[in-house]
UniProtKB/TrEMBL annotation:
Residues with site note (Binds Target strand DNA): G45
Pfam families assigned: NUC, RuvC_1
Entry protein name: Type V CRISPR-associated protein Cpf1
Top-level taxon of origin: Bacteria
Annotated positions for site Binds crRNA: R52
Residues in Cas12a RuvC nuclease domain copies: 96-524
Organism field: Candidatus Yonathbacteria bacterium CG_4_9_14_0_8_um_filter_46_47
Location of the Cas12a nuclease domain: 284-432
Active-site residues annotated for this sequence: K71, D119, E204, D493
């Protein structure tokens, strides 16, 4: 017997009016006259026919529409599927990553291409910043909302539903499906940006220490995004382009080499680069300041004394009405260039604390006020004088022993001083709306009349940068006046994307300076040195 099948998909339907699917375009152009004489697409063999028997009963749902809606209709009917592997070009999958990068870098050395930095946000699922090689911002935006769909809000709603349903697998699978759809939309958006701006794109390096952030894309989803983007850039086409036009199905862009594994991936795959994300969202975009001073939480009083009297000068500024911390960054980072800083303690800050209900939340504070209280409680003779000298004298006289009540807590002097210093260095301040279980007085989860666990909303949407160094770059916030210093960076996620893009400038500089195998790893000291040079040039 001979069976004849009609090949059909939605793009072949009589009512189809939209742009055809990319795979439909590949299939149709496979047999085009131009492809037969200038082969770009070819059959790869191993075509297969699959038979899928119906796996669910037909269930109709009557909504506001006239005709009934069939839930999961595609699984209620027996189906045959025809899979045809297609090979794209003769060379697309044959070139190695090293050779491809070398070829591309030759073009980058002569190019004034732009740089796109991508940051996994705390307030945003992801954020991008497009800059030129002078560090000027050309374009930037949150990737929370794409094509009028607010994925961040949808994920937040799904997360609340997941908690209410006792973390059911159905709710979890819905979240996974939503994230897959989101990743697909992000890839399309980034593809458009790369072509529009003739740009390279810089991601956080997943092979380095990966920090999970509140609200951002987690590691597994981020890897899916990067892998899918590499595969997309292997032969990038746009459905709305003529097949022979640049970016059409018969004339796609090759912007990356074939993906092998994350373990083998270096700092570059074509136009996609990877960099160390440390300090990118917490580096002052105007002065280049970042946190340099770290004092261990278990440091002894004697160890803390040496830092606060030998490496840091604590004083008072009448002009700014603020306590100050003065230091040289080289005293804390030996590999960094010498550079002196003065930190002012009067910038607005958010501190985390546990409220009466037992939930962690945030409140506005100011390290300037904390320091004033600290020095008054410990009976400093001149609380607005040379504090470092007084600390040394009082410690020698044994006047800084024991604990006293500071901010309603019993604390040792150096523990409270270390906290105030850390708060002063906390350039980024943020909080997010999140969901937790409502609990009764005994700590048990409260349920409603239907047996659902009661979920409550805590926190607020706030995220701002407030630099402690002159000229005090400050993004919009509820507590003080903004001071953007001519930049258009409006939150911590935007700052992260901007500084990741600036590391892309460093990578391009190294490519232009080195003919073969440029070192694209950027250490913290490299970052500090480049920032100092960049500030001097401006």
């Amino acid at each position: 017997e001979l069976y004849l099948f009609k090949i059909h998909n939605k793009d072949f339907g009589e009512k189809s009016k939209g742009t055809q699917n990319t795979h439909t375009l590949y299939f149709l152009n496979l047999f085009s006259q131009h492809n037969l004489t200038h082969i770009k697409l070819r059959l790869a063999g191993n075509a297969e026919v699959f038979y899928r028997k119906s796996s669910t009963q037909r269930k109709e749902e009557q909504r506001k529409f006239i005709r009934p809606i069939v839930k999961n209709k595609r699984f209620t009917e027996d189906k045959y599927f025809f899979h045809i592997p297609i090979k794209i070009g003769a060379s697309v999958n044959s070139i190695s990553e090293t050779k491809f990068n070398r070829t591309l870098n030759e073009k980058l050395r002569q190019s004034a291409c732009l740089i796109i930095g991508i940051d996994r946000g705390e307030k945003h699922l992801a954020y991008y910043s497009v800059i030129n090689q002078k560090g000027e911002i050309v374009d930037q935006a949150s990737l929370n909302k794409i094509n009028d769909v607010d994925y961040c809000e949808k994920l937040r709603t799904r997360e609340k539903e997941r908690l209410e349903q006792r973390k059911s697998w159905k709710a979890i699978s819905q979240i996974k499906d939503l994230k897959r759809g989101y990743i697909s939309q992000v890839i399309h958006k980034l593809s458009e940006l790369v072509i529009k701006h003739n740009a390279i794109i810089v991601f956080e390096d997943l092979n380095m220490r990966f920090k999970e952030v509140r609200g951002g894309i987690e590691r597994s989803a981020y890897q899916q995004l990067e892998k899918a983007l590499i595969e997309k850039f292997g032969y990038l086409v746009f459905k709305d382009k003529d097949p022979l036009e640049a970016g059409g199905v018969l004339n796609g862009y090759q912007l990356s080499a074939p993906f092998e594994s994350f373990e083998k991936m270096g700092k570059q795959n074509g136009v996609i680069f990877y960099t160390n994300p440390e300090y990118t969202s917490t580096t002052d975009p105007v002065t280049g300041w970042r946190q340099h001073i770290y004092i261990k939480s278990d440091a002894t009083d004697n160890e803390a004394l040496k830092v606060f009297t030998e490496k840091i000068g604590i004083g008072w500024s009448d002009d700014k009405q603020s306590y100050t911390f003065s230091y040289d960054q080289k005293d804390f980072w030996e590999d960094s260039p010498a550079r002196k800083w003065v930190l002012y303690a009067n910038a607005p800050r958010l501190e985390r604390y546990r409220n009466d209900a037992g939930y962690w939340t945030t409140r506005e504070t100011n390290s300037n006020d904390l320091l004033r209280e600290l020095f008054e409680v410990w009976d400093f003779d001149q609380p607005e004088g040379d504090i470092s000298e007084q600390i040394a004298m009082m410690y020698e006289e044994g006047k800084l022993k024991g604990e006293k009540i500071i901010s309603e807590k019993s604390q040792r002097f150096f523990k409270a001083l270390r906290y105030a210093l850390n708060l002063t260095q906390q350039i980024r301040n943020s909080d997010s709306i999140r969901y937790v279980y409502e609990r009764d007085a005994q700590g048990d989860i409260v349920e409603d009349s239907q047996g659902k666990m009661v979920v409550k909303e805590i926190g607020e949407n706030v995220d701002f940068i407030a630099s402690p160094v002159v000229p005090f770059f400050t993004t919009p916030n509820p507590y003080t006046k903004e001071n953007l210093c001519g930049l258009v960076i409006e939150n911590g996620d935007a700052n992260g994307a901007y500084n990741i893009a600036r590391k892309g400038i460093m990578m391009l500089e190294r490519i232009k300076q080195t003919q073969a195998n440029p070192d694209l790893y950027i250490s913290k000291s490299d970052w500090d040195e480049w920032l100092m040079k960049d500030i001097k040039q401006k």
